[in-house]
Amino acid sequence: MQSHEIDYKIIGHDVQLVEVELDPGETVIAEAGAMLYMEDGIDFTARMGDGSNPSAGLFDKLLAAGSRVITGESLFLTHFTNQSWGKKRVAFSAPYPGTIIPINLMNFGGRIIVQKDAFLCAALGTKLSIIFNRRLGAGFFGGEGFILQQLQGGGKAFVHAGGTVIERQLNNEILRVDTGCIVGFETTVDYDIQQAGGLRSMVFGGEGLFLATLRGTGKVWLQSMPIRKLIAQLSTGGPNSRKEARGGLLNNVM
């Protein structure tokens, strides 16, 4: 199915939203609960599947929906269609502070790989599928990187990153990254999980036991503040609280 051609604009800086403009009959698909506002004339419905294969049977739809449940996402995707005679707008907001990245899939061979929770919305015709990393190390230690999501099609897709987005173009290079800081990468880039240095660095370095290794040629999108780090900072009260706690413990010992 050919993807619908949609227009858009990104609004905001630290906490962004994307406003999509739909011509009559055009549809955009989005994660459940991502819609912020929509104009009169837009109809929405929750469906199993992304709608990229209208002839898919019930079993195929259940299989696709089941794979989304594995990733922790909603069983359904919401389809927003302009049923009026003029242009209408619908906006989607990110689930936490960060940046929305617009990606024209045609510029990347029609496919990119993203973290399982990075997808926000896309033009109808975009196919969403789940990819399990084939390497055993990634499966046990990769955390966010074990289950990845492939976006495939010929239109625009929008993914969300926490904090600031860093775009890197690899040219037959190797880049080692915190597993949670990867937003997405081209399919020409190889992904693996490797041990983070020696035993002392792993235990006391504070960077985790394993790092993601990106190798090859292609574009990579990184995020400065993945949601797990944000949650950890909020739950512990931040680095100052940890310093105060350590200082109090030391005083008690003295």
Outline the structure in words.
The protein is of the alpha+beta class. Helix content is 20%, strand content 44%. It has a single domain (7-245), classed as Mitochondrial biogenesis AIM24 (Double-stranded beta-helix, 4-Layer Sandwich), CATH 3.60.160.10. The strands form 3 sheets. Strands 9, 11, 12, 14, 15, 16 and 17 form a 7-stranded antiparallel beta sheet that branches. The chain has a 6-stranded antiparallel beta sheet with strand order 5-6-3-10-13-8, with no helix packed on it. It has a 4-stranded antiparallel beta sheet with strand order 1-2-7-4, with no helix packed on it. The longest helix is centred in the C-terminal third of the chain and has 16 residues, at 238-253. The protein has helices at residues 58-70, 136-141, 199-204, 227-236, 238-253, and strands at residues 7-11, 17-22, 27-31, 35-38, 42-47, 77-82, 88-93, 98-104, 111-115, 119-123, 127-132, 147-152, 156-162, 165-177, 182-186, 189-195, 210-223.
What's this, in brief?
Helices cover 20% and strands 44% of the residues. It has 254 residues and is α+β, with helices and mostly antiparallel strands.
